[in-house]
UniProtKB/TrEMBL annotation:
InterPro entries: ATPase_NBD, Heat_shock_70_CS, HSP70_C_sf, HSP70_peptide-bd_sf, Hsp_70_fam. The lineage of its organism: Bacteria, Pseudomonadati, Bacteroidota, Sphingobacteriia, Sphingobacteriales. Keywords: ATP-binding, Nucleotide-binding, Phosphoprotein, Stress response. This is Molecular chaperone HscA. It comes from Pedobacter caeni. GO terms for molecular function: ATP binding; ATP-dependent protein folding chaperone. Belongs to the heat shock protein 70 family.
Length: 619
């Protein structure tokens, strides 16, 4: 398939544009490129360093600061400083509800399955917008350091990211003005950085052990003919080097017999202890004893004690490795290579334990903080067609998806996916008793289907009448090696099914593809803004519908005043919907939700509460 480079200023084809690789991390992000010596290199914007802390701060005017400058506000202004946004990307409130305490900023509880939003001051931000701020900063740094526009990127995500999290990452890239050529798994990128998978004749099984500051995951990959397949993943998204620091702090508190009540009052002291603990941990990666003081508190730690302190956490990671092996039906002896990723794998005890577990010494020569970004740069270089030794596999030139609420394009198979491929997603109805669902298949990169190419349309008929939100309609796309797309829709509760075959490439010329790509880049920002407004609107409309139905059905559980006040909130939301102001709609929807939450709890009507859930397609 054609590899297209576009000069944004002129719209002409261009061969030498740099494509960067981006590691969009939970704690830190970084960007790499292939230097003129054909070696991957992390971009170091003078004076700013390699790592960009994944932190966004909003000042009183609502302007965003990103990176080290933003990090300082974590302590002085935590409510307006967003960190770890990657944990929220593509997630609903339900997904993160148990962990609300770990975030110092406000996450909106809208009681449904739609994606989370974060409230900063009077404004609502999606994790996509916040991640886009981080990506914009990375783009700007790359442009500054390389002295050339950077418009195309490969972005990495954890292997366990689901479809919605991957799509959110793509959207963030788009909003930052980047054409995201591919979303690559972090363990795949790390393997590529070590040259694994670059030889098309190589067949290998790889374990990638990634222990960062706050998260741990292990992936078992197989490579065959240059194609990576994730066999299994395991891990704990709340386990990492921060836990090592905490164990050290507890140890010092006990050793110095510090009073818990005093410490609870003195957050400054706790913070100093935590920072000192991290310092000790890092020092013990290259020496045997750490011995310092904070005032009259002795902060002493020897390597052996440190290893005893962290042993239970490390054992937990090895349990995950065991589980990952079981899931991939392999034994440790069948793993050919082990790759280390993440700052915490610098701890010699971690390395030794991993080596012992897999029975081989892991790859650790590349800086574990940089290895993913470096691999992403290699993947970018492969996609740019700069490596003649590597076979470029057939890929889909344009995204394939279906129309959802408000005329939005929901991508099912993203552009540049390797062929053959299959992907699917689940949908539901938006109206009570809906028995037909129209499925319209589109091709293209724009957020509104009307700007894309329509490929086909069919009706899934005979869905049994159920309350909105209850039917489960799986839509599956299968694109075979000959480029034929089979779209299948099946309602899982009743088994009603419909299927069609389409040839997406029919009538598609290189010129059309090129034009569609250029259009998607020039319109990226307004497209994403429009998408967010439509999403807010659909959510708002759905909420009005649900709230009105709720009053109709369960008014008897409420007082007259409660009904009247609910009516006022509904009216306010309707007025905001009429004005088509995204933030206003979200604000009023939030207020209506907050107001009616106790009523729903009072009634506990399963059918109605499930009608509030689910993504829906207009019939
Ligand atoms: P990451 O999330 O991959 O950036 O990893 C950050 C984690 O690595 C933090 O917990 C750091 O304290 C830890 N780390 C960084 N350098 C070292 C080191 N030399 N030894 C042990 N841990 C380290």
């Amino acid at each position: 398939m054609a590899k297209i480079s576009i000069n944004l200023a002129t719209g002409s084809l261009q061969q030498e544009e740099i494509i960067v690789g981006i590691d969009l991390g939970t704690t830190n992000s970084l960007v790499a490129f292939i230097n003129p010596d054909k070696k991957p290199q992390v971009i170091n914007d003078t004076g700013k360093g390699l790592l960009v802390p994944s932190v966004v701060y909003f000042n009183a005017k609502g302007d965003a600061l990103v990176g080290n400058e933003a990090k300082e506000f974590l302590i002085t202004d935590p409510a307006n400083t967003i960190f770890s946004v990657k944990r929220l990307l593509g997630r609903s409130y339900k997904d993160v509800a148990g962990h609300q305490d770990t975030f110092s900023y406000k996450i909106i509880d809208d009681e449904n399955d739609s994606l989370v939003k974060i409230k900063v001051g009077d404004k609502f931000y999606t994790p996509i917008e916040l991640s886009a701020e981080i990506l914009k900063e990375l783009k700007a740094r790359a442009e500054h350091a390389l002295k050339t526009p950077v418009n195309r990127a490969v972005i990495t995500v954890p292997a366990y990211f689901n479809d919605s999290q991957r799509q959110a990452t793509r959207d963030a890239g788009k909003l930052a003005g980047l054409d995201v050529l591919r979303i690559v798994n972090e363990p795949t990128a790390a393997s590529l950085a070590y040259g694994l998978g670059l030889d098309p004749n190589q067949q290998k099984t790889i374990a990638v052990y990634d222990l960062g500051g706050g998260t741990f995951d292990v992936s078992i990959l197989s490579i065959q003919n240059g194609i990576f397949e994730v066999l299994s993943t395991n891990g704990n998204t709340f386990l990492g080097g921060d836990d090592f620091d905490r164990s050290i702090v507890h140890y010092w508190i006990e050793k110095n017999k510090l009073d818990a009540a005093v410490l609870a009052q003195d957050s400054g002291l706790m913070q100093s202890l935590r920072l000192k603990a991290e310092e000790a941990k890092k020092a013990l990666s290259s020496q045997n004893l750490f011995n310092e003081q904070i005032g009259d508190i002795w902060c002493t730690l020897d390597k052996q004690t440190f290893e005893q302190l962290i042993a239970p956490k490390v054992a937990e990671t090895l349990n995950s490795c065991k589980q990952a092996l079981t899931d991939s039906k392999l034994t440790a002896a069948e793993i050919d290579e082990v790759v280390l990723v993440g700052g915490s794998t610098r701890t010699p005890y971690v390395k030794a334990q991993v080596a012992e577990f897999f029975g081989r010494y892991p790859h650790d020569q590349i800086n574990p903080d940089e290895v993913v970004a470096l691999g992403a740069a290699i993947q970018a270089d492969i996609l740019a067609g700069n490596r003649s030794d590597i076979l470029l596999l057939d890929v889909t030139p344009l995204s394939l998806g279906i129309e959802t609420m408000g005329g939005l394009m929901d991508v099912i198979i993203p552009r540049n996916a390797k062929v053959p491929t299959k992907a699917g997603r689940q949908y539901t109805t938006s109206i009570d008793g809906q028995v037909n669902m129209k499925i319209s298949v589109f091709q293209g990169e724009r957020d509104l289907v009307q700007e894309n190419r329509k490929l086909a349309e069919f009706d899934l008929k005979g869905i049994p009448a159920m309350p909105a939100g209850l039917p489960k309609v799986d839509i599956n796309f299968m694109l075979n090696a000959d480029g034929i797309l089979t779209v299948q829709a099946i309602e899982l509760r009743s088994g009603v099914k419909q299927e069609i075959d389409i040839t997406p490439s029919y009538g598609l010329t290189d010129d059309t593809v090129e034009k569609m790509l250029i259009d998607s880049i020039t319109h990226a920002k307004s497209d994403v803004e429009q998408r967010m407004l439509i999403e807010a609107r659909s959510e708002g409309e759905q909420l009005v519908y649900t709230a009105e139905r709720f009053i109709e059905k369960h008014g008897s559980f409420l007082t007259a005043a409660e009904i009247a006040d609910t009516g006022t909130h509904i009216k306010a939301l309707k007025a905001a919907l009429a004005k088509a102001e995204k933030d206003e709609i979200l604000k009023k929807a939030d207020e209506l939700n907050e107001f009616t939450r106790p009523f729903a709890e009072r009634v506990m009507d399963v059918a109605v509460s499930s009608a509030m859930k689910g993504k829906s397609i207009d019939k």
